[in-house]
Amino acid sequence: MKLRAQPHAALSGTATVPGDKSVSHRCLMFAALASGTSRISGLLEGEDVLATAGALRAMGVDLAREPDGGWRVEGRGSDGLAEPGDVLDLGNAGTGARLLMGILAGQPFTSVLSGDASLRRRPMRRVTEPLGLMGAAFAGRSGGRLPLAVTGRRPLRAIDYASPVASAQVKSAVLLAGLFADGTTTVREPLPSRDHTERMLRAMGAEVAVEDLPDGARAASVRGGASLAAQSLVVPGDPSSAAFPTVAALITPGSALRLGGVATNPLRAGLYTTLREMGARIRLTNERTAGGEPVADLEIEASDLGGVEVPPERAPSMIDEYPVLAVAAAFARGRTVMRGLAELRVKESDRLATMAHGLAACGVRVRVEGDDLTVEGGGPPAGGAAIDAHLDHRIAMSFLVLGGRAREPVTVEGAETIETSFPGFRGLMNGLGCRIEPAEVS
């Protein structure tokens, strides 16, 4: 599907972005492992999360959307998952696939995971290696890529694992496997990654410990054998999704928006910290806690942005937001340097290369040096380009934001994947004043 973003005037209004994707995956999985009935409100009903729901259903979990829009999950307990009768198709859901591997590692059966073309290209070895140390067995394509057979073991061996990267997906997969291990499992990261798993497991009754280590590192541990208790779970608005209307408003003169109920977890707030350093006028109001996560309403006003240098240690707290930050940088005064972006190369696409190529096609001066991205700002770029999003939802949305303020419209091919994380994106953005419409297929 192709979408075209036309230049638009000031944005205004109030909106609520879809539920947090990371939290939504975890709510479904953890509720499935709990004993009793859990109810989830605010669940993101994008394709990625629905793929996770389908995989759990294939293992005997009774879960369904209720008439009031909430979701009911009948937990199977730690011993209740059934061997699936077919391949578990996770679509484009990298989070779903990697976290599910941690659960499957502790099951006494063999299962097979697969997904769409994009997911089948993504590396899984960073997850299979520590899970293999715990006793699970994996058979897949080169590089540990999907399709991948997982033969679980019960109990698993508890490990103390030093992860070479700060990745919430790696950490979460190992901690989930740790629920089925014969002791305490620990994951040490060079920098703190998002901590939704630790927060939610603790709230549901698992024994979880977190320790700050020297040089900014962090360790998270879970004791095996815990019985999770069913909960009423609330999914806050996704800060990664909120980033798109936020940046669109910041770069459009005269704009003023209010986005309600957005998660403000400090380990997810790197983009908003960076935008404020650039001069963005973003105010948090009605701060509160929902489902164990800090939440607030965001008030955003158009701002005169200036270039900054983003340190590499901030990457784990904003890894999904660099594409739209690069768009903001294109409209800022001066130079913005984003350092330490190696992780962007193993997302739904090579986001570092794809963003640099697309920005250059739109007339933005940009360069990649190693794992650093430099964007030379200076006002609305020419636009007028046709961008291949490479089936990457965040690339697609980022260039549609750029197109709304470029001198000429921007067309994005592969925009159908936006539904994986932000169902209703076009309607929400257009309701605020954007002009995003289907493009004619040539």
Protein described:
This protein has 442 residues and is an alpha/beta fold. It contains 13 helices and 24 strands. The protein has helices at residues 21-33, 47-58, 94-104, 117-121, 125-133, 168-178, 196-203, 239-250, 270-277, 322-331, 351-361, 393-403, 425-432; strands at residues 2-6, 12-15, 35-41, 62-65, 71-76, 88-89, 110-114, 137-141, 145-151, 160-162, 184-189, 208-212, 218-223, 232-234, 256-263, 281-290, 293-301, 309-310, 335-338, 365-369, 372-376, 386-388, 410-413, 435-438. A four-stranded mixed β-sheet has the order 22-23-1-24. α1 (21-33) packs parallel to α3 (94-104), α8 packs parallel to α10 (322-331) and α8 packs parallel to α12. The longest helix is centred in the N-terminal third of the chain and has 13 residues, at 21-33. It is globular, with a radius of gyration of 21 Å. The model has no long low-confidence stretch (mean pLDDT 95).
